[in-house]
Amino acid sequence: MRGLTAALEWQSRAVVGRHLRVYLKNWYTSFLPPVLEPITLLLAFGLGLGAYMSSGIEWNGRLIGYIDFVAPGMLAYATFITSIFQSLFGAFIRMRFQRTWEGQLTTQIELKHVVWGEILWAGLLTTSYVAMVGLVLSACQALGMLHLQLQNLPLVIPIVFVSACGFSALGLCFTALVPTIDHLNLPIFLVVLPAAFVSATYFPLGHPVLAAISTVNPLYHLAEGVRGLLLHGDRTGQHLALLAALLAAMLLGLVPLDMRLLRKRVLGD
């Protein structure tokens, strides 16, 4: 329990502050790729593929424009991918190559603060990226390209932050396990991308097997929950409740596991 409450201690905030200061020094090289990726996918799928689906797509028993279906899914996709990559590659580089963790551990900061600092930083960075994508969606709506209930967009922000923290706890688990940075491709191709594909981000999951798998996929419930908020879905509350349950299980289960695995790897205990 003390490891979980370390998220509220000043040392964890100090780790986040350090990452923020470093990020602001090189923001122009780190900011554009994560922000432009979901925007590019939105334009490619929403406008490109959507042009061949002029009749719309069925969702919750009603027809909506395909770009309206994809746009909320892009917010969920950006949340998942950004937080996972930050806790995989970003954390691994700070741990292995930059030796940032070693320097932090020579101060009043303990490993539990390092872990929570990485998780909270991934959540903060991901939320800022999703907020920028939300601004792009607002611009698209002003141009008549989208038809969303953007007054509910502020409700998405805290959901994104908590989701990103849960996803980053999963990423840190892989960071603790893989021997080299080249091996990070294994969780990407074996776990991350399959979870992204079975998430109703780009298309509804009509196949019963995919639908069954998606019930334990937090990204699916995040995508459907955000989509429900922005399109007034009938099962929004159910998806958000299941998302909350899955995220609670991830944080309560994975954060202590991350600390145990990283203690063995970083400190040799």
List keywords for this structure.
single chain, mainly alpha, globular
Describe the largest sheet. 2 strands, antiparallel
| N/C terminus separation | 19 Å
Number of domains: 1
User: What is the SS-derived class?
Assistant: mainly alpha
- Which consecutive residue ranges, at least 5 long each, have pLDDT under 50? none
Proportion of helical residues:
over 70%
> Could you tell me the number of beta strands?
2
Radius of gyration: 19 Å
Q: What is the helix tally?
A: 11
Identify the overall geometry: globular
Mean pLDDT: 91
The SSE order reads HHHEEHHHHHHHH
Please indicate the percent range of residues in DSSP E strands (runs of 2 or more).
Answer: under 5%
Q: What spatial order of strands do you see in the largest sheet?
A: 1-2
Could you walk me through the main structural features you see in this protein, from its secondary elements to its overall organization?
Helix content is 75%, strand content 2%. It is an all-alpha fold and 269 residues long. It has one domain (2-267). α3 (27-48) runs antiparallel to α4 and α7 runs parallel beside α11 (236-267). The longest helix has 32 residues, at 66-97. The mean pLDDT is 91.
